[in-house]
Design goal:
Strands 7, 8, 9, 10, 11, 12, 13, 14 and 15 form a nine-stranded mixed β-sheet that branches. The protein has a six-stranded antiparallel β-sheet with strand order 2-1-6-5-3-4. α6 packs across α8 (266-282). The chain contains eight helices and 15 strands. The chain has helices at 24-28, 46-59, 68-81, 125-129, 152-163, 207-218, 230-234, 266-282; strands spanning 4-7, 10-13, 31-39, 42-43, 87-94, 111-118, 131-137, 168-173, 176-180, 184-188, 194-196, 223-225, 238-243, 247-254, 257-258. Bound molecules: pyridoxal-5'-phosphate (PLP).
Length: 284
């Protein structure tokens, strides 16, 4: 079934959507994006995604072609037109189209594209059984706090994981885990403390991460924001990842070492439930 997508002011069937071949997003990966999850036809953690979008745009000296009110309305209109109950809304803003050049003129009109993707969160295999990860060197650029569309290296690392028969890769820099290819990474120590890397330009400031850490603290769970090694993770009681596309998803194996008894741990399972109820209750 063909979706209705949004391209620069128009709602069109997906096979009629057009972007210039001179768009800097296409030529230079000069663009930013956001992915918001949809639960019960509503947007989860949406204010966080818009705030991060503005931060990414500011850091790259870009502007949004629409106001925040218009952006929310476009999200809602796409959800309506595609009759989306559960899934994701992807949004991308690129600097705009111009004859290929490393330097860009200051007066470009940014391009805005949004589309929906249906997804049944409850049926997903990863959260049910837990995922297996491998480590890979983190060879991405140094501004991972900006959510840019340059995703070649993380795609490559994910393909390495698939080739090894696993689900995802945790990226490692200077001996410490930064994050997953498209998610933030956590361990739970034997004492029950949730550990995840502190915020800096080394990782994306996950919107799900922010909510999960707040919810964990409210549930009296102990949280430490600091880097950890693959070795520490392999000796942990549990591990998990967070992202808008998977919420909280347990990790049961790291570089061939099975964690605990190889099934999703109680803290990851509980956080997943708490997060999903929060996301449903606060969705707009
Ligand atoms: N880290 C990276 C590298 C990501 O690509 C993502 C999501 O795409 C995340 C973390 C999780 O961020 P969020 O919870 O906002 O989806």
């Amino acid at each position: 079934m063909s979706r209705i997508v949004y391209v620069n002011g128009d709602y069109v069937p997906e096979d009629q959507a057009k972007i210039s071949i001179f768009d800097r997003g296409f030529l230079m990966a000069d663009g930013v994006y956001e992915v918001s999850s949809v639960l019960g036809g509503k947007l989860a953690d949406y204010p966080g995604h818009v705030a991060r979008l503005h931060r990414s745009l500011d850091e790259l000296q870009m502007t949004s072609p629409v106001s925040d009110d218009e952006l929310l309305e476009i999200h809602r209109e796409l959800i309506r037109r595609n009759d989306l109950d559960e899934g994701l809304v992807y949004l991308q803003i690129t600097r705009g189209a111009h004859d290929r050049d490393f330097a860009w003129p200051s007066d470009l009109t940014p391009s805005l594209v949004l589309f929906t993707q249906g997804k049944h969160f409850e049926d997903a295999e990863g959260p049910k059984h837990g995922i297996k990860v491998i480590s890979q060197p983190d060879m991405r650029w140094g501004r991972r706090d900006i959510k840019t569309v340059q995703l070649l290296y993380p795609s490559f690392a994910k393909m390495q994981a698939k080739a090894a028969g696993k689900d995802d890769a945790w990226l490692v820099e200077d001996g410490l885990v930064t994050e997953g290819t498209s998610n933030n990474a956590y361990i739970v120590t034997k004492e029950g403390t949730i550990v995840t890397r502190n915020l800096s330009s080394d990782i994306l400031h996950g919107i799900t991460r922010a909510s999960v850490l707040k919810l964990a603290a409210e549930a009296q769970m102990k949280v430490e924001e600091r880097p950890f090694t693959i070795q520490e993770a392999q000796g942990a009681a549990e591990a998990f990842i967070t992202a808008a596309s998977t919420f909280v998803c347990p990790v049961v194996e790291i570089d061939g070492v099975v964690l605990g008894d190889g099934v999703p741990g109680p803290i990851a399972k509980r956080l997943r439930e708490i997060y999903i109820s929060h996301a449903r209750a606060s969705a707009i």
